[in-house]
Design goal:
Pfam families: VanZ. By secondary structure, the protein is mostly helical. It is about 70% helix and about 0% strand.
Length: about 140
């Protein structure tokens, strides 16, 4: 027996919440105390960008896969998730360069967003086969 899929919003709720958290973190004004924290290294922001979009890709793919309102989204969750991550990462960088001018837009951040999303989709493909595989009726 195939478990019944949910509507559109419910399985995507985690991805929406995470996207909002990404928006807040990428656009908040950061105060500098002068001393670098112990965990700081050159390029840590790139790792953070990749990690945030790694999680977003997994959550959005899961949401697209589980929803049943739009069949194309359910059949192509990786494509939809990658497009979402590419557009969202680019939008954040554009906003950082134009509206949130206390942050600097860096297109290399966008590249790491895309890289993190691709890695997340790779992991999702394994999770989907292992835990979400549809069984024939």
């Amino acid at each position: 027996m195939v478990p019944e899929k949910k509507g559109y919003l419910r399985p995507s709720l985690y991805a929406l919440i995470w996207a909002f958290i990404i928006f807040l973190l990428c656009n908040m004004h950061l105060e500098s105390s002068g001393a670098e924290p112990w965990y700081y290294f050159e390029g840590i922001d790139k790792v953070v960008h990749g990690g945030m979009f790694f999680v977003l890709a997994i959550l959005s793919s899961w949401g697209f896969y589980e929803q049943n309102r739009f069949g194309w989204l359910s059949r192509n969750p990786a494509v939809c998730s990658l497009l979402l991550c590419i557009l969202y990462g680019g939008l954040i960088e554009i906003l950082q360069g134009t509206i949130f001018t206390y942050r600097s837009a860096d297109w290399l951040d966008w590249a790491f967003d895309i890289g993190g999303a691709l890695l997340g989709l790779w992991v999702f493909s394994f999770l989907k086969k292992r835990y979400l595989a549809r069984k024939p009726v």
